[in-house]
Amino acid sequence: MAAKIGTGDVSFRLGSSTPAAAYLGSEQVWTAATVPGAPTDVSASMGAQYTINYSPPASNGGSEITSYKFYSDGVEITPGGQTVGSEAVFDVDYTGTQIQVSAVNAIGEGPKSAAITG
User: Fold this and answer.
1) What per-residue confidence (pLDDT) applies to 67?
2) What is the DSSP code (8-state) at residue 16?
3) Which of 30, 40, 63, 93 has the highest count of CB atoms within 10 angstroms of its CB?
C-alpha cells in the first residue's frame, strides 16, 4: 500500500506478521526486523545442577527476544529448571560436550553462539 504524504510516498505492508521496510520519498524510515544475533559470553558449570550462563546478543534484530534455545553437541536440550535472565539450569550433566545458545524473536531463531566445552 502506498499513501501520498506531502512530497514523498510512504510504503508499507498491512496484514503481515513480518514488517516490510517503509520509505518516505527516497529515504528509508525503518527496516524490516530480522532474526537476532548470537548470544555471547557463554559459560557452563556443574554445581548442584548444570548451569549455562550467557549474555543477550548485541542485536535483537529489531524485534524483542522471546526465548533462548540451548544445544549440546548440536542437539537441542531443554532446561530442567526455569530460565531466569541469562541463566538456564539443567537436570542433566553436559560436562565435556560442546554447548551453544541461540536467541529467538518473532521472526525466528538466530545463529548459535560460539561453541564452548561444557
Assistant:
1) 93
2) -
3) 63
User: What's the CA gap between 18 and 81, in Å, rounded?
Assistant: 32
In b/e form, how buried is each residue of 37-70, taking b as 16+ CB within 10 angstroms?
bbbeebebeeeeebbbebebbeebbbbebeebbb
Domains and CATH numbers, the chain: 1-32 (no CATH), 40-117 (2.60.40.10)
Contact 111, 40 (CB under 8 A): no
Give the whole-angstrom CA distance, residue 38 versus residue 57. 5
pLDDT at 60: 95
Average pLDDT for runs of 10 along the chain of length 118: 49 49 58 92 94 96 94 95 83 95 96 96
Residues 101, 68 contacting (CB under 8 angstroms): yes
CB 104 within 8 A of CB 68: yes
Tell me the pairing of strands 83-84 and 87-90: antiparallel
Give the pLDDT score at 95. 95
At residue 81, the pLDDT reads 72
